């Protein structure tokens, strides 16, 4: 019989990469983790780990067991969430830690905070459990996923572009929030020169000769801009790099060049900027990720539901 606690340690090793990091996450000593993994190998009857230099790597059998571990641990998390819901008694407020990419942190998270505050103010104390406390960390999608899988966040708000898909990480569930269209931002004067009327769809092939303002190369948004221009048959002539879309939009308004900007990332002030959808649409799907089974926990479930609510409000303002 395989021991679930040892299986969890093997899965954690696959996430953290080293016995030392796994031991720290599990509040155990390194030798204790090594002993538990050795015992798991005896239970399994096949080698689960092998040394490559000074590093332990999963064997094929180890990778297979980790795949099963994600399912097993997800089912356990779901069972714990259901039991927690049954015994919920309106006690103390729980903490939900969120890692979100910058424009979601700027637009969606303030709306979420207001919804939680409004719900607490409107509902009588016995009507529902107290609203959870939120802790926000701004993080690009890769870092947000890493925080979620390492147990440093309970929910990750991430994005994936239609031209740059992102695989669902192992042991995670996806809660799709909205599809965010990517727009072409051009200086108002350039729009006249390019014969683009307000709101008219733009063909990127006509922008090959323009100066381009790109997100920083450390972001997936940079790769998206490169791919979109490449699909249109040219390499963008970049004159500025900035990871803040507010900076890029301000530079567009100043006439420095053109940029691709997701609608969610647009600042409130777009003076001097003409915005256009693309004839070959590109979208950025925004999702919330939770560890498998944990979204059924009452407070985390409440946060995910409210994220759906505020995302719908962003898609259809005024409703």
Protein traits:
319 residues, alpha/beta, Arc Repressor Mutant, subunit A, D-Maltodextrin-Binding Protein, domain 2, 3 domains, 7-stranded mixed β-sheet, two-stranded antiparallel sheet, 10 helices, 11 strands
Structure characterization notes:
The protein has 319 residues and is an alpha/beta fold. It folds into three domains: 4-87, Arc Repressor Mutant, subunit A, CATH 1.10.10; 95-176 and 285-315, Periplasmic binding protein-like II (D-Maltodextrin-Binding Protein, domain 2, 3-Layer(aba) Sandwich); 179-284, D-Maltodextrin-Binding Protein, domain 2 (3-Layer(aba) Sandwich), CATH 3.40.190. Helix content is 44%, strand content 22%. It has helices at residues 4-16, 19-26, 30-44, 60-87, 102-122, 141-149, 188-193, 220-231, 245-253, 298-315, and strands at 49-52, 55-58, 95-100, 133-138, 155-161, 172-187, 211-214, 237-241, 259-262, 273-276, 283-291. Strands 3, 4, 5, 6, 9, 10 and 11 form a seven-stranded mixed beta sheet that branches. Strands 1-2 form a two-stranded antiparallel ribbon. Strands 7-8 form a two-stranded parallel ribbon. Strand 7 (211-214), helix 8 and strand 8 (237-241) form a beta-alpha-beta unit. Helix 1 (4-16) packs across helix 4 and helix 5 packs across helix 10 (298-315). The longest helix is centred in the N-terminal third of the chain and has 28 residues, at 60-87. The radius of gyration is 24 Å and the shape is elongated. The model has no long low-confidence stretch (mean pLDDT 88).
């Amino acid at each position: 019989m395989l021991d679930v606690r040892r299986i969890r340690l093997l899965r954690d090793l696959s996430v953290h990469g080293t016995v030392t990091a796994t031991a720290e996450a599990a509040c155990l000593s390194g030798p204790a983790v090594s002993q538990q993994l050795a015992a798991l190998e005896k239970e399994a009857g096949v080698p689960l780990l092998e040394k490559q230099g000074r590093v332990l790597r999963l064997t094929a059998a180890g990778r297979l067991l980790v795949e099963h571990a994600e399912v097993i641990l997800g089912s356990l998390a779901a069972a714990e969430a259901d039991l927690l819901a049954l015994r919920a008694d309106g006690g103390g407020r729980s903490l939900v830690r969120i890692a979100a990419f910058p424009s979601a942190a700027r637009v969606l998270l303030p709306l979420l905070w207001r919804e939680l505050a409004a719900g607490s103010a409107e509902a009588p104390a016995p009507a529902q459990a107290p609203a959870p406390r939120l802790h926000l960390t701004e993080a690009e999608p890769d870092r947000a996923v890493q925080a979620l899988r390492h147990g440093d966040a309970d929910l990750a708000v991430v994005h994936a572009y239609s031209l740059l898909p992102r695989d669902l990480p192992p042991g995670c569930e996806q809660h799709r929030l909205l599809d965010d269209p990517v727009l072409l931002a051009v200086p108002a004067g350039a729009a006249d020169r390019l014969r683009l009327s307000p709101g008219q769809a733009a063909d990127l092939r006509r922008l090959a000769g323009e100066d381009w303002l790109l997100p920083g190369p450390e972001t997936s948004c940079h790769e998206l801009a490169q791919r979109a221009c490449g699909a249109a048959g040219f390499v963008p002539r970049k004159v500025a790099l900035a990871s803040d879309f507010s900076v890029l939009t301000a530079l567009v308004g100043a006439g420095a060049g053109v940029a691709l900007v997701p609608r969610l990332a647009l600042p409130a002030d777009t003076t001097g900027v003409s915005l256009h959808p693309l004839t070959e649409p590109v979208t950025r799907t925004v999702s919330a990720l939770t560890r498998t089974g944990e979204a059924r926990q009452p407070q985390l479930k409440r946060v995910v539901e409210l994220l759906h609510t505020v995302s719908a409000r962003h898609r259809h303002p005024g409703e």
